Amino acid sequence: MEQKKSNDFSQGSMAKNILNIALPMTLAQLINVLYSVIDRMYIGRIPEAATLALTGIGLTLPIVSMIMAFSFLFSTGGAPLCSIARGEGNDAKAEKIMGTSMSMLVLIGIVLTAVLFIFKRPLLYLLGASDMTFPYANEYLSIYLIGTVFVMISLGMNSFINAQGFARTGMLTILIGAILNIILDPIFIFVLHMGVKGAALATIISQGVSAIWVLRFLCGKKAILRLKRSTLKPDLKLTGKICGLGLSGFIMSVTNSAVQMVCNTSLAAWGGDIYVAIMTVLNSVREIISMPVNGLTNGSQPVLGYNYGARKYSRVREGIRFISVIGIAYTLLAWGLVFAFPGIFIRLFNDDAQLLGAGIPALRLYFFGFFMMALQFCGQAVFVGLGKSKFAVFFSLLRKAVIVIPLTLILPYVGGLGINGIFLAEPISNFIGGVACFGTMLATVYRQLKKEEAAAGKA
Fold first, then answer.
1. pLDDT tens-digit readout, 69-87
2. Is 230 within 8 Å of 173 (Cβ atoms)?
3. Distance (Å, rounded) from C-alpha 133 to C-alpha 136?
4. Which residue, 61, 193, 68, 75, is CA-closest to 123?
5. CA atoms within 13 A on the CB side of 123
6. What dihedral do alpha carbons 232, 237, 240, 244 form, nearest 10°?
7. Distance between CA 52 and CA 383 in Å, rounded?
8. For residue 8, with 0-12 CB atoms within 10 Å meaning exposed, 13-18 middle and 19 or more buried, which class applies?
9. Band of the pLDDT at 2, cuts 50, 70, 90?
10. Sign, Cα dihedral of 59, 62, 64, 67
11. Distance between CA 95 and CA 160 in Å, rounded?
12. What's the Cα-to-Cα distance from 244 to each of 54, 73, 78, 104, 158, rounded to whole Å?
């Protein structure tokens, strides 16, 4: 009872409640990014094959994003619904949501493993692999797929730990796996001379340990909501609601996978394998620097959802203002650093002279106006946290599918932009998508919260 009281998000400062969840979650997400980023850092330094190996890993990123998309379907859909149910005082429903999400994650993980193993060769060539880069991509993916279920559980179910207010425990889930990955990577890659196979093996072992940690906590006595055998049978009605809300996170990740695929094939056609390697580096840099604002907005969702369920509308608006100001300030700072010191960020992965020469101007184009991403993150977080699935899905599709992908294909032919047109598609989408998403959130959800607050005050 005391634990439930201490995790009551309707009490105390909204900023403090959000930060108590967001700071450990941000660190956890940053560490989680290191799973793949550290692989790329080590692979970018494999003797005599660094650039080809780095390009090969870059070709697998759309597939990795696709796997993560399915974990987000149930984590970003189930966890906010779980928070809302907690805010309403319905713990039985919250546990059923969690159990249904767990069962579906495992089932889909098994299906994905089988399907991707069958189609991996044609899929990698479709993603832009050449005869030189295919062996590296195939070696990495073949081992990574063995750990698909581990990835689904560790990423998907960790959100339910955070949703209960145990952000530090959620952080440890990722921290344990990341430290193990950092230790195993150089041993497998360089000491045992396993190359990209070693990087993949280190990743799935680390994810497996993280998955065990998650399940141990959610089945244990410390959790407010527990995984029980009685809740694991999927509830079709709840599955529909979870997928409806989680569709936003799913589409964001799937469309990100589609964007990576289109970018890789376009870059290979316009500039060759070197530009696929550059995009691998740029994606890695983006993942690192966007993690703090992503962690802040994701960390706000349990708090916003809980207060919305408890009808504390003024607190919800206070939380929205807080994440908006902090998010915009941070991304402005990050944009300035990347623009001023591009070489430092690229050298984290590879110091090849050709890659640096072409990569620095590409990085400056790609990250132009990066601060506009904060508007997209904040708007999406509010829509998802309050269960507004239609808005969340629409704006997920708008930025990537409707704006980025067409621009990536069209801009190289406009005004002789060539390869630069591919890198310009991302910042243009940030401006259009960010303004549209954030502006709609203010005009609809934020305004409605104010009306409901006034109505509650009169009552």
1. 888 888 888 888 888 888 7
2. no
3. 6
4. 61
5. 19
6. -110
7. 41
8. middle
9. very low
10. negative
11. 10
12. 36, 9, 10, 14, 20
- pLDDT single digits (tens) 142-195: 999 999 999 899 888 988 888 787 877 877 887 888 888 888 988 998 888 888
pLDDT at 28: 63
d(CA 119, CA 343): 37
DSSP string across 210-268: HHHHHHHHHTSTT-SS---GGG-SPPHHHHHHHHHHHHHHHHHHHHHHHHHHHHHHHHH
Give one DSSP letter per residue of 394-422, joined into a string. Answer: HHHHIIIIIIIHHHHHHGGGSTT-THHHH
CB atoms within 10 A of CB 107: 13
Rg, Å, the chain Cα set:
22
- Rounded CA-CA distance 72/108 in Å is 12
Task: Name 93's Cβ contacts closer than 8 Å, sequence gap at least 6.
Answer: 85
Which 8-state DSSP code applies to residue 51? Answer: H
Q: Which of 14-28, 261-275, 279-293, 324-338 has the highest mean pLDDT?
A: 324-338
pLDDT score at 158: 87
Angle at the Cα of 242 from the Cα atoms of 163 and 30, rounded to 5 degrees: 45
3-state helix, strand, coil in the chain (%, to 5): 85, 0, 15
With tokens 């994440």, the residue in question is 323
**In whole numbers, what is the pLDDT of the chain averaged over residues?**
85
Q: Identify whether the C-beta of residue 204 lies closer than 8 Å to the C-beta of residue 152.
A: no
* Distance of alpha carbon 141 from alpha carbon 231, whole angstroms: 33
Cβ-contact 387, 84 below 8 angstroms: yes
* Residue 416 to residue 440: CA distance in whole angstroms: 35
Are the C-beta atoms of 251 and 384 separated by less than 8 Å? no
| H-assigned helices in 127-166 | 134-144, 148-163
Phi, psi of 47 (to 5 degrees): -55, 135
The two tokens of residue 208 are 């497996």
**DSSP letter assigned to residue 132:** T
In the prediction, which pLDDT does 90 show? Answer: 87
The tokens of 329 are what? Answer: 């300030």
Encoding tokens for residue 265? 């094939």
The Cα-based distances of 241 to 53, 76, 200, 226, 382 in angstroms read 41, 11, 34, 20, 17
Angle at 12 between CA 453 and CA 85, to 5 degrees: 65
